[in-house]
Every structure is written in C-alpha cells, then in structure tokens.
Predict the structure.
Amino acid sequence: MALSPRTSGFVGLRERSLVWVRGARWRWMRRAIALPLAGGLSLSGSGLGKTAEPWDRALPAETKRLVTECAVSQLVAQSVEAEAFLENPNPALAGHPAPLFSSIGDTLTALLLAAPFPQIHPQARLGRVPVLMYHDVLPRKEVFFDVTPAEFEAHLQAIQQHGLTPISLDQLVTHLATGAPLPPRPVLLSFDDGYLGHYKYVYPLLKRYGYPGVFAIYTGKVERNYGRPGLTWAQLREMAADPLVAIAAHSVTHPPNLADLDDHELRWEVTESKRILEEKLGVSVKHFVYPEGNYDERVKAAVRRAGYRSALTMSNQVDRFANESDDLLSINRLGQSKLSLAIAQADGGAPLPPLGKTFNFSAPVRKRQVALEGVPLTLISGGRPTTVHADSRYQVPDIIANTPAIAAVDGGFFSMKQLDSNTMIGPVYSQNTGQFVPGNTWDIAKIVGRPLVLVGPQSVQFVPFDPQQHNTLAGIRKVMPDVSDAFVAGAWLVKDGKGRSPASFRDLFGFDVPRHRAFWGIDQAGQPVVGVSKNRVDSVTLGELLSRTGLREVVMLDSGASASLAYGQESLVDYTPRPVPHVVALFPPADVRLATSCGARPVATVESGCNGRDRCLDALIAAVPGVQLSDRFSVRK
C-alpha cells in the first residue's frame, strides 16, 4: 500500500516549492493531528487505521484546497496556529496532561509511520512505561491488595517527589502505536472494578494532584453491593465528565476468564458493557480491561471486533512494562506494590527520527538503566557516534577526558602481545588520528564475516568483513564514501531487531560463557547506543534482551575484563576494567538548521546545541536531500 501525495493531502507540488496551509485550512489539519492514532484513525486512505470518524469523510475535499507557496518563512508563519493547538489541543485539558508531540513535524512523522493496528511500533520498545493497577481503596484493608487512602496518597507523593509524570491512557496508546516519546518518566494509574472507594478517596486525590487515571467498570456492579459497595451512575457521570478520567469497559458480569465463555456469551460481555457505559455516561469507551487479566486469541479478536482501541491485562507471574506487551490488545500492567520498580525504571522513550531518515544523530545523550530477566543493563543513547584510537592502552574515562565525548564504551578487539600496544584486530580508522591502519594478514584471516562497523556523518553500516575488499581505505570508501570511522567488532548480537541464534556466532571463543559484555549499535529511533551488562551474561541471551529494549542493530565489543562504560569521567562498571586502546564514543549532537531564502531549495547546515526538529516542518522539508517533497510522502508497505 502506498501513501501518495494526493491521499496525504499535499497536492500540486512544484519543484523547489514548500507546502503551507492558509488560515482556516488548519482546522482540518488540527482535527487530523488530534486523533488518537491507534485503531480508529483513517487519514484519507493513509492506512493508519480502519475506522473513520464521521468528520474524516470531509477531509479529502478540504485537503484538495491546500496550496503551494515558496518560502520557508511563509510556512513558519502559517504553522503558528497549528503549533498553538499542539500545545493545548483541547481547551478543557488546560493544566492537565501535556501534549504528546512537541512540533507539527513530530506529529506528521507519527501519523505517517504509525504501526498497523494493533501492533506496537518498534520505536515504542525504547520506552519503559509502568501501568500501575489498583483495586479497592478503603480505610480498612480486607485483602492484601487493598490500599488505604493514606497509602494511596503516599504513592502519589512518591510519584511527585521522584519526578514521574502521570499520563492518560490515550497518551500511552498513541505512544505505543507511533513510537512518539512520552513526557519524562511516565506512569499510568489504573483502577479496576468500580468500587465506591474510587469515588470517595481516589477521585478527590487525583483532582488534588492533577493526575489522570483510567477506571475499569464492569456494569453489573454499578449501584450494586457485590460484597463491597459499587459506584452509582451519578458518581460515574461526574467522574467521566472530568478530563482527568478515562472510563474503560471491564465486561458486564466480570467472569473469571472470558476464554471459558462460548462465542455468544463472550460477544455479549465485551459489546454490551461498552454499549451500556456509552449510553449511561455519554462518553466514548475506547478501551477494555480483561477481568483478572485472562484472555486468549479468541477473546482478543472479540475485543477488536467490538471496536476497542486497546485492552489492558495483568500477570501474577511476571512484571512487564507496557512497552513489552505483545500488542495494543494485551497491554501489560504492574501491581500497585511494584511502585518502586516503576520509580526506578520509568522512561518515556526516544525522540522521533526526522521523517524519511533511518538515523538520528541530533538527539540529546541520555542514560538509562534497564533490568530484564535478572540482567541489569546500562544503556546510553543519542548524540553522534565516533571512535577514538589511542596511542596506547588507558581506562575509557581517560581516553575521552580531553574530547567532547559525553559517554564511551570500550571498542574493538585488540592485540594482547604487548601491554602498551594499540594494535587492533582487523583494520581501524578513527577521526582522532585520520589514519587508516590495515589489519595484519594473520588476524584478518580469522575474522572473515564478522561485523565491519562503518560510521559516517549521517549514517552507520554494519557489513560482513571481507579481507579482499575491506582492508584498505579505498575499499571501505566503496561501501561508504564519507566514512569517518571503521573497525571490526566481535559479532552481531541483534540484527534487524532480532537476537541472534547460537549458530550465528560460529567459532567466536566464549560467546556462550556468562561474562560482562560491552556492546554498541543503533536503536529503532536511529540513535546510537553504547552499553554494558552489569551482570555476567552469554551472548545469545544478551542479544535477546537487547532486542526487547528496542535496539535495531547491535554488535559485541571487547568484553570480559575489558568491558567498560564511561559517562563523562564516571566509570559505570563496578570493577577496575582492563585498559584498552580504542573506544566508541557519543559526541554532542549536531542538529540541522534550514536556510529560509525564497526561490531556493533549503540547505541543511550543521549547528551544535540546537534542535532543528522543533523548527516548524524542517523534519519534512529536509528529510531526503535531492528528492522532491512530493516523493517524500510515499510510504510503501
């Protein structure tokens, strides 16, 4: 399926022209931008969803009126209204959750690149969004998972004190569908079953703190005391009218396992609960919560057919963040007792890459801690990748001490013959020396097929090393003409977003032995990433874990006693590693600023310390140099 310039609304484009939208035309753009992007969006045939909102049918006629003009400055002027809308898309939400997108360029990028429903966008795997699940809140506990009002307020205070950002369920679903980053350290609060305590204690505290929450209601409990008092319809209507509150369906009768029902009963539970809630409350119910977290593929299919855009589940066996979910119809939650885990690891994800580009070297450098299957990982992403080839062997912080590097990891494998040697295994080419050093004949015969890492100003390539082609500077320039750094890594840990099999490591010594491991690669947002495992782990397991964190391509660096990671002058490993002669470093980002002269194609220039992606639509107009703007909106699937 192709998204053409006509279906995306940009028509009649001329060479050297930029798109701008006059005055009232923005109202249609604003409506398109404001849509939740999962399951219910149809942007005039863009393929981002199946169900069109009623007003969406008017989009084609309106968008055909979009016109073309010349200057970027005119485009900037016309974008002011849309930017104002993005800052507060719904006046009723003033003071409530911040908008997901910081620029109209980000918004259109997300629209064009949203994953097919109900898939989770690969870039969303870079985030770690905890969805905390609460049941009843009452003055005196009756079961272990009850929470008192004082305990619940203590949770809200902890969220506030540790800088977490409570978000709405719509924000989470949009993030998972598009990969767009959430506010820093996000958390979603959810409350199951519709207890009276949700109105008496939870809702007043949410209003006091200004925090959104989602309430899962099974309609059979409303105005009934099944063991404990339930909410009344009047209380639910008051809550549903507040922009802080989202209402989700939780079935009609709360059966322990929807999978045990026959088709007729299942359909009734998921569709009738939605109908009743919408009729009684006058709101759209877009989300479902599985009773007791139980479902199977048949249940998911019924929920999808009923028109829900997401479904929440739970597990008593494993703790998983929302980004680790299988899809939007099985979003994972954490029990409220896991608040400390949420505080420790909450992460809103990475910035969107510029539209049409697979690499992003303009994002800020950030450090994060991730723990998967008992293996703590330290990951540092963003900035511009480069290498430093030292004149001898040093600790990693010492190698980058007099450079602009923000972070670095020990690099390629090196010769052990002399303690002060900087001789590498295979060819090496680094910006700091500007010299290409070929690998010696004995070594290169043993590393055929291992990843040759090629770094350029705007891209990275990992190609199988071929001594006949890649042991000269001219040879590697045939692969990447603007190459600035090159070296041979140990093995692929992740390739095309998937961990590697044991057979792929071939004769690499010790790949299956638990060791401290160092690695670097590119994530799904196109950012460079360096990191280490804080515990010992084998290469196959590490690759599987890194693929789950949203990494697209990862190679193993010198590991074991050499594994070392530095953030500034701080070592991030708990031991004194072996000195090394080579590092992969992250330098401060260089961002793109566009020339604004009329009558000429925009020129991208490097400017340090700025964020060109937040300037109007530069992510669109600078996406692919030399390609007409109309061509940049063709997305093949």
